[in-house]
Design brief:
The chain is mainly β and 183 residues long. It contains two helices and 14 strands. The protein has helices spanning 92-95, 147-163; strands at residues 3-9, 13-20, 23-31, 41-50, 55-59, 66-69, 74-75, 81-82, 101-108, 117-119, 124-125, 129-132, 138-140, 169-172. It has a five-stranded mixed β-barrel with strand order 4-5-6-10-9. A four-stranded mixed beta sheet has the order 11-12-14-13, covered by helices on one side. The protein is flat and about 55 Å long. It starts with a strand and ends in an 11-residue tail after the last strand.
Length: 183
Amino acid sequence: MSEEVLINVTPQETRVALVENGVLQEVHIERSQSRGIVGNIYKGRVVRILPGMQAAFVDIGIERTAFLHASDVTQDDNGAVAGGGSAETPPLTEMLNDGQEIVVQVLKDPLGSKGARLSMELSIPARYLVFLPGSDQIRISQKLERPEDRERLRDLVTRLADEEDMPHGLIIRTLAESASDDE
């Protein structure tokens, strides 16, 4: 299989294309005027906790402090802060402290006088899977409707995750339906 990555950079935009065997597979366009930070992952520092709002403001190195709601923060079994929402959210003051360093992902770009919206539930998308550090579940896109496809993909990914001793979660994306087992 031949793979090519084609890149075109101009002052206004950057275009990247992935071509496999002469067939265009992916195109990404980033315009300098509309570059957002949604999806970016940062190591931030809690600068202020508002118990009444169940929210914290986190400095992630941009102009305004970002907003983290308690529903986007959880603790693991040892009491350490970890991503992965739960049905019952304990008070934020029990989960975070002023000055604490945390890893967060941007859910919403800053807008006007409001800072970015954050989550500690990280997700890293790829072509066929979404990697979920901090989770241990294997989930499947709801758009995959045929039970036999869902079962085949779940068995394959579960087996591969066990072979790699991967303690993190995954979401099987819709595009995985047409992928070979090797892919």
